[in-house]
Amino acid sequence: MVNVRKKVETKSEVSNYLSCEQREIFALLMMSAGMMGAYTYILRGGVFCNAQTANIVIMSIEIGKGNIRSGLYYLIPISAYCLGALISEALPSPIKRMGFLRWDTYLIAFEMIVLLVIGFIPLSAPHNIVQVMVNFIASMQYNTFRQMEGIPMATTFCTNHVRQVGIALAKVIRKRDVSAAKRGLVHLGMICCFFFGGAVLTVACRYFAEKAIWIALLPEAVILCKLVYADLVVEHNMLGKKPSGH
Length: 246
Description:
This protein has 246 residues and is an all-alpha fold. The protein is built from 11 helices and 2 strands; from the N terminus they run H-H-H-H-H-H-H-H-E-E-H-H-H.
């Protein structure tokens, strides 16, 4: 009887979250982000475009060396990332008033279009083009999908996930905290999804070159189907509800 009650409570807790906040969506987002990270590093200039720390560090190094022009170049990807965050903050409200689909759903559709276009850009083209495109969509994804079932989470890089695993281990060792262990396993699972996506895309790059990025369309297509179904059928009366963390 107790087990049945716990299962009902767990199901009820999960149902309180929108589809765009659920675990499988975040796992697929992490997988897709791992693919984008591997793709830009292997084929598009040896950089990671999912976050901007590296670009700021390189810019500071270049300017510190006196290479002002090459250092200032990094303002381009940084600005693209900033623009992505700005747009992802500005668009949800007008899109909500349309009453058709959520912003999250439109974003995934837009990401798929960008990834499709990237696959048509030959490797002979300047890598900066693809880098800025990935900067832009990664920023919007990071700013849009903020919490998974109440847990703050980044979907485009792993730094915080690694930190949270360390925190969970400390709590388990010191306090035998079961809830911390469960949360740590969630973050570890996200790291594994990111790792899997990067490994798969690395293999694909050997065979498909610039078109390897199209493999990232697979997890994104699953996400899009789930979100469209939720928006039009299951959660249509909740289009005005904000996801956690917004």
